[in-house]
Each structure stands twice: as structure tokens, then as C-alpha cells.
């Protein structure tokens, strides 16, 4: 890699650190600011932050690679994600923003569960905290691995050096700058991803000579690659589209909704977020298709389809621009790592330390513990990332389903059903998590194929968790009047006032 590319990447790192310093100076005075930015997040920042932390390297590596390999039939996952993200904005965002403040200013998802149901047993907080801390440590590790491999492939650095470079910059701005720094860096990273996913497929498309040449080259490889339904079974289609269900239960995404400054800003965030997502999704799919046409026309097929974005960045652009485009991949990786670190840190601080270790901790002490937690989780993730062949990568690939099934139905029902109970919520969470794990790891197969080969595990996990939550709640004692009245007040605020203030009472 030539020096200009390194200059671009260095400039990107400096920008991230500068934003971290800005967050440190402006929004880390107390734990509410450190974890949620004081609930003052601009809708554009919230929207792009949610999108960037959601997509990770999948947007620039995984999706283009899948389309490169199997054609448009792989894009059904993207369709499911777009639909899921839209309904997440529509159904979850407004009520969660209000409910978490009405519920005694809940700062984390486990905190919200406990306060929503007045759970004095703390079982909801404990179980959901364990799920978040374990899965996000593994999830973070996968991002660190991706960063290490990017530096190794693109810049010829040692894999271990890449690990520490990726983790070091992310940890620095997350540890010092907190939620505000993470959100602003995500916003910048989302902008970089947006530009890159327009620029790369467009330049490759022009280089090839337009639509006719692109389609001709793809058809020479396989005529079925341009068919949406080629080789897609009914269960396969359901599995792909059902990825959208996962959005309702992803803590690192929905926490952005809790931080947006007003209820009226949620609609603005939805417009911005969905516009960003549709453009980048189309760009990622186009990168895979146009990339296949380009490698076919030039006679240079790839051994690893997931590197098609990297390949086009290197052969079509000046090294200075290449550095910017590679920064887009790093941005996708780092935005997710920082979000996961912060959610894990928040859970360790608010749901473990403050709840079980030191209830009288001062705000300054809690911010310090939050920073220590960021460091602890990152060190654990780096340690796990040293083993490239570790089975954690397989587990992380199923984390989306795990979070979606364990938390998704419970969050939806807790926001919309006034008669939902604590026991129903706990039973639903356990059912969702256990179903996903059994679907993946149970020694059951059909014609020698595991269950996941036929149906994505989020489908049975989400469905059973939803049904279990409803059934147990109906069989349980009716919630107290204080719980139902608080729920009704949230509904009234949604249907009445358009601007959220900070004057709610529990």
C-alpha cells in the first residue's frame, strides 16, 4: 500500500481522537451524560449513529461478497433488514424514548426492564445484563478480528498490530468521550460509508461502460445471478427476510432512540436513517454485482468474494482515495465496536456495580467505573481475538438472532401491552435465548443438515418467546395499578404532546 493511503487513514484516526476529546470536554460530567449523552442527541446524529453501529463490516464486506457469489437472491436479507429497521423506528423508537424517561430515567435496557415492571427480585436486570455482557464481549471480539485482518490484507501489517490499532483508537475515544463521542464518530463514519458505497460501484459501472456491459458480463458467469428468486426456497426466503425481526432486540441500536432529544425528533431521525440505509444497502448490492462484472471482464476473479470492495478500491482509485475507501471499512467496523463497548460498559456500571456493589456511588465514581468497564471489555475482546480460529466467531454470527429473540418480543410487548407482567417478560427472554441456542447446537438434523440450514433460528426463537410472554402474562397476577397507570401515561404522551420534556414522574 502506497503512502497516500496511509496518510488518509492517519487523518481518519486523528479525526476520531479529536471527536473523543470533544465528547470528553462536553458530555461526561455524570453517568447519564456518559451513557446517553444527557438525552440531547440530534436526530441526524442519532439516525446515522444507529445505522453505522448496526451495519458494521457486513455492509462493505459481507453483503457485497454474498451478492458477488450468489447474485440478487442474497439481497433478500437486505430487504428484511430495511423493513425491520423501518418498523423499529416506527414502533419502538417513540415509546422507548418516552418510557425510559418515565420509568425513573432508565439508562440501560436491563434498567428499563426492572423499572417497567417494578421488579424487586432484580431477576430481569440480572438475566438481561448477563446476556448483554457475554454476547457483546464476543461481538466486540469479532470486530477487532475484522480490523486486524483489514490491516493485514490492505497494509501488510502483522495481524496482532492490526488488532491493537483498531482496538486502541476505538477504546480511546469511547473511554474518554462516552456516548456523545461514540455517537458523533458514528455519524462521521456513517457519512464515510455513505459516500464510499456510492463512489465505488458508480466508478466501476462507468469503467465497464454502462448497464449493458455489466449485465452481459454477469450473464456469462451464470444467467441466474440476476434473478431474485433463483435457487431460493420458501423457507430460505422466510429465513432471509426474518433478519428484520432482530432489530427490536439489539441494545446497541435501540439505545440511540433513548438518547434522541425530543419525541418530535424521532420522525426526523426515521426519515434520515431510512434514507441512509436504503442508499447504502443498494450501494452494497451494486458493489457485489458490478464487482463480479468487473473481475469477469478483466479476467481477475477473487479467491475471497468478501474482499470485492477492497479490490475495487485498490484498482480503480488513486491511493489517496483508496485510503479514504479503506477508512470506510474501518469506520463500519469501529462504529459497531464502540457501540458495543459502551452498551457493555453501561450494563456493567449501572446494572452490576451501582445495583449490587455500591448503590451510593457518586456520579464521578460511576463515570470512572464506566471507563474501567470499557477497558476491561476491550481487553477481554482483544484476548479472544488473538485466536483467529476461535469458535467465538461462529457464536457471534448468531448473536443477532440471540438478541432479537431474547429481547425483541419483550421490548415490543412491554411498550404496547399494559397487562404484561414481570414473570411473562422473564419467561419470554429465557425462552427466546434458549430456543436460539438449541436450534443452533442441539444434535438434531434433517437429512444430515442442521436445523439452521433450513430455517434461521430467530424465527422459532422470536415466535416462541412472543407466545410464552403472552401466555405467562395472562396466567399471572394482574400488574399493579401504578404499572398500568404509568403505561397509560406513556400512551397519552405519544398520542398527545409532540415534544418530550424532562418533567416526567414515575
Automatic annotation (TrEMBL):
Keywords linked to the UniProt accession: Amino-acid transport, Cell inner membrane, Cell membrane, Ion transport, Membrane, Sodium, Sodium transport, Symport, Transmembrane, Transmembrane helix, Transport
UniProt subcellular location: Cell inner membrane; Cell membrane
Presence of the UniProt keyword Transmembrane in the record: yes
PROSITE patterns assigned to the protein according to its UniProt record, in alphabetical order: NA_SOLUT_SYMP_1 (PS00456), NA_SOLUT_SYMP_3 (PS50283)
Transmembrane regions: 6-24, 75-92, 124-142, 162-182, 187-206, 226-248, 269-296, 308-333, 366-386, 392-417, 424-442, 454-475
BP terms from Gene Ontology: proline transport
GO CC term, one of those recorded: plasma membrane
Family matches, as InterPro entries: Na/Glc_symporter_sf, Na/Pro_symporter, Na/solute_symporter, Na/solute_symporter_CS, Sodium:Solute_Symporter
Pfam families: SSF (PF00474)
NCBIfam families linked: Na_Pro_sym, sss
PANTHER family found in the cross-reference section: SODIUM/PROLINE SYMPORTER-RELATED, SODIUM_PROLINE SYMPORTER
Its biological purpose: Catalyzes the sodium-dependent uptake of extracellular L-proline.
Name of the featured protein: Sodium/proline symporter
Amino acid at each position: 500500500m502506497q503512502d497516500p493511503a496511509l496518510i488518509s487513514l492517519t487523518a481518519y484516526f486523528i479525526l476520531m481522537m479529536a471527536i473523543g476529546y470533544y465528547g470528553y470536554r462536553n458530555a461526561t460530567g455524570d453517568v447519564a451524560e456518559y451513557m446517553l449523552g444527557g438525552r440531547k442527541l440530534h436526530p441526524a446524529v442519532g439516525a446515522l449513529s444507529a445505522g453505522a453501529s448496526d451495519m458494521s463490516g457486513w455492509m462493505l464486506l459481507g453483503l457485497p461478497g454474498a451478492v458477488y457469489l450468489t447474485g440478487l437472491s442474497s439481497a433478500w436479507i437486505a430487504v428484511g433488514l430495511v423493513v425491520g429497521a423501518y418498523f423499529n423506528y416506527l414502533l419502538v423508537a417513540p415509546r422507548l424514548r418516552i418510557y425510559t424517561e418515565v420509568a425513573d430515567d432508565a439508562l440501560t435496557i436491563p434498567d428499563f426492564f426492572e423499572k417497567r415492571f417494578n421488579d424487586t427480585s432484580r431477576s430481569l436486570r440480572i438475566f438481561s445484563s448477563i446476556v448483554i455482557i457475554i454476547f457483546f464481549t464476543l461481538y466486540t471480539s469479532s470486530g477487532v478480528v475484522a480490523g486486524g485482518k483489514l490491516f493485514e490484507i490492505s497494509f501488510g501489517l502483522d495481524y496482532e498490530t492490526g488488532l491493537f490499532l483498531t482496538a486502541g483508537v476505538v477504546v480511546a475515544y469511547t473511554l474518554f468521550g462516552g456516548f456523545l463521542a461514540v455517537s458523533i464518530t458514528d455519524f462521521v463514519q456513517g457519512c464515510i460509508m455513505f459516500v464510499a458505497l456510492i463512489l465505488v460501484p458508480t466508478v466501476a459501472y462507468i469503467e465497464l461502460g454502462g448497464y449493458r456491459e455489466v449485465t452481459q458480463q454477469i450473464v456469462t458467469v451464470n444467467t441466474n445471478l440476476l434473478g431474485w428468486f433463483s435457487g431460493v426456497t420458501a423457507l430460505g426466503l422466510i429465513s432471509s427476510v426474518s433478519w428484520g425481526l432482530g432489530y427490536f432486540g439489539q441494545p446497541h441500536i435501540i439505545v440511540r432512540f433513548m438518547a434522541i432529544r425530543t419525541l418530535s425528533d424521532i420522525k426526523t431521525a426515521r426519515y434520515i436513517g431510512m434514507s441512509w440505509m436504503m442508499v447504502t444497502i443498494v450501494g452494497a448490492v451494486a458493489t457485489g454485482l458490478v464487482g463480479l462484472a468487473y473481475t469477469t471482464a478483466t479476467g481477475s476473479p477473487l479467491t475471497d468474494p468478501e474482499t470485492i470492495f477492497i479490490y475495487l478500491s485498490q484498482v480503480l482509485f488513486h491511493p489517496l482515495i483508496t485510503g479514504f475507501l479503506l477508512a470506510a471499512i474501518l469506520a463500519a467496523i469501529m462504529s459497531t465496536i464502540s457501540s458495543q463497548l459502551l452498551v457493555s460498559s453501561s450494563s456493567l456500571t449501572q446494572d452490576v456495580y451501582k445495583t449490587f456493589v455500591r448503590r451510593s456511588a457518586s456520579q464521578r465514581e460511576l463515570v470512572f467505573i464506566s471507563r474501567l468497564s470499557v477497558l476491561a471489555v476491550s481487553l477481554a475482546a482483544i484476548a479472544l481475538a488473538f485466536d483467529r480460529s476461535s469458535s467465538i466467531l461462529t457464536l457471534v454470527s448468531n448473536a443477532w438472532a440471540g438478541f432479537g429473540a431474547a429481547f425483541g418480543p419483550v421490548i415490543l410487548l412491554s411498550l404496547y401491552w399494559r397487562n404484561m407482567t414481570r414473570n411473562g417478560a422473564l419467561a419470554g427472554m429465557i425462552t427466546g435465548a434458549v430456543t436460539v441456542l438449541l436450534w443452533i447446537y442441539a444434535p438434531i438434523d434433517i437429512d444430515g443438515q442442521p436445523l439452521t440450514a433450513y430455517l434461521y433460528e430467530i424465527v422459532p426463537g422470536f415466535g416462541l418467546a412472543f407466545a410464552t410472554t403472552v401466555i405467562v402474562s395472562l396466567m399471572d397476577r394482574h400488574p399493579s395499578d401504578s404499572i398500568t397507570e404509568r403505561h397509560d401515561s406513556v400512551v397519552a404522551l405519544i398520542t398527545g404532546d409532540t415534544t418530550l420534556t424532562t418533567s416526567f414522574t414515575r
